[in-house]
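Re: Re: token formats

Sure, here are both.
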Amino acid sequence: MALIYGSVARHQNHASSNVELMVVGEAPVTEILAVMTPIQGRLGREINPIVYPLAEFQSKLEAKSHFLESVLRQKKLLILEDENELSELDS
């Protein structure tokens, strides 16, 4: 699963806003960063990825992580997967 959150997802961004990206899965951060570099150049914006392996994401949800609960409550743009699958992870 991958989603964009923050000012870009809320449509409150400006030209210098960073893109906040959350990825849940087993992809190594180095691979994600390698993919993001050319995209950042095309967008002219920095992309800030946060990567959680699925088990860690679920553990943080169970522990009521303030950060994750905040991200999941706010408007977000789902890039991979759908809202139903995201809801299943949060149950």
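Second one below.
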Amino acid sequence: MTVFAVTLGALGVLVALFWLLFGSPATETPAPLDARDTEEFLPVNCRYFPQIRQMLETEDHQFMRRRVPRHIEVEWRRERRGILGQYLSGLGQDFGRLERLARLIARLSPEIRRAQEWEWMWLGIRFRLLYRIVELKIALGSSSADDIARLTDPIAGLAAELESRMSLIAECAPSHLHADFGG
């Protein structure tokens, strides 16, 4: 009986890890990559972090606890969790767009080393794991601004790196075209 329980437990852990690592944190359906304007790949939701940080300030919680009836405070907390959940979903969409942009850049720039692609993959795994942890904390009502900040930091860092890579590609593109046409 214990071998069966251990096997069942190990299978459960494997399924949970698969969900954590490869489950999409965002509900956005992936669109095919083409020569669209790269602006649509850049993050849009993480720029609202200052408002989210303000929303998570403890002074608001203390004020509500002291000034309003319990049922109103409970409803207020539930609505805040809903807003945080929507923001978290937006961060997942931001990261997903950046991952698509990274794949596009890797296709356009053969100079990108495999090590860089592995680094981006590892960043994606870490982001998804942290995403699931923050998602669970929000569901339990114990999230903090620091939790959300740990998700916005990799998005901002990856966006800056990809913008830099795009600039390098843009600088090199005319010389490649010029050399290809024998001029």
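The chain has one domain: 46-180. The radius of gyration is 21 Å.
- S.
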